[in-house]
Amino acid sequence: MKVKRKGLKRHRLVGWVFIGPAIILILFLSFIPMFQALLLSLQTGTGNALSWGGLANYRRIFDDRVFHQAISNTFFYLIVQVPIMLILALILASMLNNKKLRFKGIFRTCIFIPAATSLVSYAIIFRTLFANHGFVNYLLVNMGILDAPFNFFTDPTSARIIIIVALIWRWTGFNMIFYLAGLQNIEYSIYEAAMIDGANAKQRFTRITVPLLKPIILVTTIMSTNGTLQLFDESVNLTGGGPANQTITMAHYIFNTSFEGMPRFGYATAMSFLILMMVGVLSFIQMKAGGKRD
């Protein structure tokens, strides 16, 4: 018995030796900075001239109309873009998982390529496409839909739609790969049995594919939600937050607060912690809603 206990202790010690460096790195690179950021969020002032302000920064959030607009914009992107993107990714994955489909590798690569494109590069592409003399305006004018080029980036609705289209174009292929991996773990015999029983394509999709991919759908939903709440590049590079902050996101406004004009690091950190709470609450709700077993 003593020999077994010694062997068990030795195994535990070896385990701690292996995970020790990772714990130390996470502690110094994540948790200590988070604690320092929490202290910073309780300080007011600009630049390095900071003083203890308590919850003043958090109270200020309730009166900041620009941040309220940023929250509204971000949740608009979340509510519209995420469901469309995930549904489209699921449909494409189901289509590309067909054994009879030829050139599947080419189609999968073409759909996934946008996810590997540089954020700045694809923003420039979309700005060029929707510019006054861009390809989209050229088509619309020549087809007789518009009499003159339309400035998409000065209209709040069209500017938001461009951001949503850009997000769908970039991230649909990324989520499709997750669904493809899940579909390839489903026995094809299940679909064959369903076809023998007379199930059509829609019934096979809703009664077999979606229920069996439920855990992966939950994961992609949480990742997409978290990513959208932290949306930054599209707002900065596509629209610059305009017109009149109608497309600005929370992360973009936090960046402006920190690095444009007089930096207000304490207030920016307080807004960052609010995003952290939003991410945590939404992730918890999604896990509770999607984690139920039938």
Structural class: mainly alpha
Oligomer: single chain
Between the first and last Cα atoms, what is the distance in angstroms?
44 Å
Low-confidence stretches at least 5 residues in length (pLDDT < 50)?
Answer: none
Instruction: List the helices and strands in order.
Output: HEEHHHHHHHHHHHH
Number of helices: 13
Shape: flat
How would you write the strand order of the largest sheet? 1-2
Please give the share of residues in helix: over 70%
Provide a quick synopsis of the model:
This protein is 72% helix and 3% strand. It starts with a helix and ends with a helix. The protein has 13 helices and two strands, in the order αββαααααααααααα.
Task: Please provide a written account of the structure.
The chain is mainly α and 294 residues long. The protein has 2 domains: 2-56, no CATH class; 60-290, MetI-like fold (Orthogonal Bundle), CATH 1.10.3720.10. It has helices at 2-40, 56-61, 65-96, 104-112, 119-129, 135-142, 156-183, 188-196, 201-212, 214-229, 233-239, 250-259, 265-290; strands spanning 43-46, 49-52. Strand 1 and strand 2 (49-52) form a beta hairpin. The mean pLDDT is 87.
Write the layout of secondary structure elements.
Layout: H1 2-40, E1 43-46, E2 49-52, H2 56-61, H3 65-96, H4 104-112, H5 119-129, H6 135-142, H7 156-183, H8 188-196, H9 201-212, H10 214-229, H11 233-239, H12 250-259, H13 265-290
Antiparallel strand pairs: 1-2
